[in-house]
Amino acid sequence: AQGHHLAVASNKYQVxxxxxxxxxxxxxxxxxxxxxxxxxxxxxxxxxxxxLEIVQNTEHRVQTELLYVGDSLVDRDTAKDANVPFVACxxxxxxxxxxxxxxxxxxxxxxxxLLLDVYLQxxxxxxxxxFDGGHMRDHAETVMRESLKLARAYKADETMAYVIAAYHDLx
Length: 171
Hints:
globular; three-stranded parallel β-sheet; alpha/beta; 7 helices; 5 strands; about 10% strand
């Protein structure tokens, strides 16, 4: 992804995770981490913190924005515990229906749909950081989650509801 770091955070053991990543996606991922001795497995967020540390040391940056993309409820819980935004993909371990039934907010059906999430995280949501306490980023994220629930309940266009909710206080 141009201008972005891509990483793998897996509960499969480290050697297998590296071999699979390098075989099927050579040169795509900047960091590939799997299960390692002495590090708790997901949903413990340590693997996320380790990836951030590696990327930050590589870039010599103080802060790195992260979008956690996963295909399971364990991934959702890992992102929550790491306090990072989560987007689920419907083509993996858990079906779209099961993800939605278990309260997952944003679910994408095609990889290119992630571009919208990257844009919203980098360009739109930071605008809320300058707002008053009742209209900051966490408020916008809550409105986005609740809008997705309503869109699903009424079988409306989820992406449209998500984008409208992201912009709702920006005028």
